[in-house]
Specification:
There is one protein chain. The protein is built from ten helices and seven strands. With 272 residues, it is α+β, with helices and mostly antiparallel strands. The protein folds into two domains: 186 residues, no CATH class; 74 residues. A seven-stranded antiparallel beta sheet has the order 6-5-4-1-3-2-7, with helices on both faces. It is globular.
């Protein structure tokens, strides 16, 4: 096993949704990624680029932004797993709710708050007794568990919710290796190809998905307007802070809002 203290920065994004639901939102991140199933009701996104090496934000902040962006317009949570040469951790995003996360030093020393683990368990619907107790073990000192082992322990607990990462997609591995493994196993490439394709992907998802009354009518209009109102200032804020993740979150909100309003109008007046 590689020394966790020498680990190159890397990350994985787990989404509690099937790939068809994740695909259109992932396109709007405007980052090249690989998408694959990751168990019953889960998908995994493997970054194909390393913006944390070229931008102003470290890997944990980049992943927090991506996780938040993936969930602002969706009804499912996203879990970012990240690591670098000195730390490792996770960030759980669930729409506009406050993100929760936990951090371990490279030698496995826990430096997070126990309350974060309890909130994590509650938001993912884990067992409030057995799973919370297992998560508690990850917050206690253990000389035999480094940061990578802590992440593997977290994945083992999440297996009870259906998580099953493809063979070889192991937290702690270098980004290039994860990308190669995902590609070799037939993961789908998600790559920004312009707004026309992104809009088409969104509309296909709406047509095929069980969105019910949210697609049309008053609820669709209220939701679309709210997403536009929230998305515009968030995009401006992200651009000012040079935060790719939060800029993407704002762009996704704007896109969802505009598409929701346009789709409602188009279906209400099909011959217009």
């Amino acid at each position: 096993m590689p020394d966790a203290s020498a680990a190159a920065p890397g990350a994985l994004l787990l989404c509690r949704a099937e790939p068809p639901a994740v695909r259109p939102v992932a396109h709007l991140l405007r980052e090249k990624m690989l998408l694959a199933p990751a168990g019953d009701g889960w998908s995994v996104l493997v970054p194909a680029t390393k913006p944390w090496l070229t931008g102003a934000e470290p890997v944990d902040q980049v992943l927090a932004g991506w996780a938040g962006a993936l969930t602002v317009g969706a009804g499912w949570p996203a879990l970012a797993l990240w690591w670098d040469e000195s730390r490792a951790g996770y960030t759980l995003a669930s729409g506009f709710r406050r993100t929760v996360g936990y951090v371990w030093l490279s030698d496995g020393t826990p430096v997070g708050e126990d309350e974060a683990m309890r909130t994590f368990a509650a938001r993912l619907g884990l067992d409030p007794v057995f799973d919370v107790e297992a998560l508690g073990g990850l917050t206690r000192p253990d000389s035999a568990a480094d940061a990578r082992a802590r992440l593997l322990g977290l994945i083992a607990i999440l297996a009870r919710t259906g998580v099953a990462l493809p063979v070889g997609l192991t937290p702690g591995e270098p980004t290039d290796r994860l990308r190669s493994v995902a590609a070799a196993q037939g993961a789908e490439t998600i790559e920004w190809s312009g707004w026309r394709d992104a809009v088409r992907a969104e509309l296909d998802a709406v047509e095929e998905g069980p969105l019910g009354p949210w697609v049309r009518g008053p609820k669709a209009r209220v939701l679309g307007a709210a997403q536009l109102v929230a998305g515009i200032p968030l995009t401006v804020w992200g651009l000012r802070r040079r935060s790719a993740g939060w800029t993407a979150a704002g762009v996704i909100l704007i896109a969802h809002g505009a598409l929701s309003l346009a789709y409602d109008r188009m279906r209400a007046h099909p011959c217009a």
